[in-house]
């Protein structure tokens, strides 16, 4: 269990176009999903936290008008990169919080990651 | 200074060796510690999850947390070529707090 899918796995687009990336939790409901960027040899950078039925919370420095996030259902969140430019080329990864687990009697946060989407903007 | 420091490697070891991967951190509020494995061009996969200080063992993997030193480790016994991947440490203070990741250490196990 706890499978998260992303589509597409890779995309190449022209500068100025918009690209939509889907993130789905296949076998569980995820009230919270996260969107990350990962550059080569760098850590995962959290872009935004997406809660089902409400507006996403963006990290400092991330343009919410450029990276549109929609979390319309408990199993689907989308990230749209609007007016993409070459500097937006990156590996985009989503994760889904499965909900509360328990470890040593304390609530834990378990995130399951999708396989990622490689975006190349020409 | 980054909140989480992790040597990027690469680390090359022969098959069967014991591997030690480490992270240091600066935020004393961190209480939950995770290790993820990421194969090339794939998303991270959760390997180990520990709370506070102590050890946790799962098969060939052992996670250690030393909060007094702000130092966490992942040991891999009897390493296999299939263990070749990038290993990321991650941590947070719990609850709905943001998870902070290390940069990852690239491990190569040579047959």
Architecture overview:
The complex is a heterodimer of chains A (122) and B (111). With 122 residues, chain A is mostly beta strands. Chain A has strands at residues 4-7, 10-13, 19-25, 32-38, 45-51, 57-58, 67-73, 76-81, 90-103, 106-113, 117-121. In chain A, 0% of the residues lie in helices and 58% in strands. In chain A, a hairpin with a 5-residue loop joins β5 and β6. Chain A has no helices and eleven strands. Chain B contains no helices and eleven strands. In chain B, the strands form two sheets. In chain B, strands 2, 4, 5, 9, 10 and 11 form a six-stranded mixed β-sheet that branches. In chain B, strands 1-3-8-7-6 form a five-stranded antiparallel β-sheet, with no helix packed on it.
How do the helices and strands line up, and which of them pair or pack?
The complex is a heterodimer of chains A (122) and B (111).
Chain A: E1 4-7, E2 10-13, E3 19-25, E4 32-38, E5 45-51, E6 57-58, E7 67-73, E8 76-81, E9 90-103, E10 106-113, E11 117-121
Parallel strand pairs in A: 2-11
Antiparallel strand pairs in A: 1-3, 3-8, 4-5, 4-9, 5-6, 7-8, 9-10, 9-11
Chain B: E1 4-5, E2 11-14, E3 19-25, E4 32-38, E5 45-51, E6 54-58, E7 61-66, E8 71-76, E9 85-92, E10 100-101, E11 105-110
Parallel strand pairs in B: 2-11
Antiparallel strand pairs in B: 1-3, 3-8, 4-5, 4-9, 6-7, 7-8, 9-10, 9-11
Short summary:
The complex is a heterodimer of chains A (122) and B (111). Chain A is mainly beta and 122 residues long.
Helix/strand structural class of chain B: mainly beta
The share of residues in extended strands of chain B comes to over 45%
By DSSP (H or I, 4+ residues per run), the number of helices of chain A equals 0
Give the beta-strand count of chain A: 11
Regarding quaternary structure, how should these chains be classified? heterodimer
Helical segment tally of chain B?
A: 0
Which stretches of chain B are low in confidence, meaning pLDDT under 50 for 5 or more residues running?
none
Alpha-carbon Rg of chain A, integer: 14 Å
SS-based structural class of chain A?
mainly beta
The gyration radius over C-alpha positions of chain B equals: 13 Å
Distance between the termini of chain A: 37 Å
Mean pLDDT of chain A: 88
- Most strands sheet of chain A: 7 strands, mixed
Helical fraction of chain A:
under 10%
The percentage of residues in β strands of chain A lies in: over 45%
